[in-house]
Amino acid sequence: MFRRYDRPMSDEIRVPDGARTRFPLDTVYQAARMYYLEDATQGEIAARLGVSRPTVSRLVAEARKAGLVRIEVVDPFQDETVALAERLQVVLGLHAVHLAAVTHAATLGSDLAAPLAAAVGAMGLVPGDAVLVSSGSTVYDIAHTGLPSMQGVQLVPTVGGQADPNRWFQTNEITRAAAERSGAIPAFLFAPALPGRTLRTSLDEDPAFQHVVGLWDRAKGAVLGIGAPVVTRHELARGLPVEDEAFDRAAGDVCLNFFAADGSAIEFPGSDRMVRTSREVLAAVPHAVGVAVGAAKVPSILGAVRARLVNELVTDAATARALLDALA
Description:
single chain, alpha/beta, Rossmann fold, two-stranded antiparallel ribbon
């Protein structure tokens, strides 16, 4: 569905400041008016203006370029999506839910850009505020294609993963890409996800590490991927003891805080040494925005909400309906 805009019918043609056209401005305007408002064919326009059909095509293109024509694509599902978001927010007891009408795996970051921008906008960020950024494939896509402007905001990784071979878990690279796209300032965490005891002790005494932990504690917002049930995954962050039976019960994780379907914490050998933003810190973030899409993520989203690891949600309409069905 398109809405077409035109200037008021008057003797004066108003164009955006600085607009330039290769053809007489009045001719450009008349061609655009006939094409968009009268639905005239290029042949009809050519006859009325005394020009060739190829010239009509160029005139119409020039009108678009000069800003004489504005086209708005109207989302026919907007009202339905808003109502669905409001219902899910109430049912899950969240601060807010922001939905994309549809998403596709190949364009996930850009598909989620609008609802994510709404979530970030509601944070009321100012330069100097801290926003946490997790790892995972969804956040990776968002970092490269879907983040709004956050000029002067400090972006902070939430987990270790400096040398992870999988790009989804290279937290510093995700944070760097997110900062580059949004205009934010990146902080970096030079640590593996699961360090040995000696390294962990050394990290706790390192001023750079302490600085990042301090940013965790004062974060105003967070963009947090919600991991799928572990038994459905092909890979986890490097160093995790994936053979441990505890992971069989994991409905998902947020910042490597694994949880069961009821939200209870799942611990495993070495979990006390994990470099991760803790459950307690995440629960205190004013705008902890969980981001997840797909039916496979339904138990993960529910577990993350029950664990109080997220208090807002960005997803799509299909996932929202699946969540409501699961709770029916």
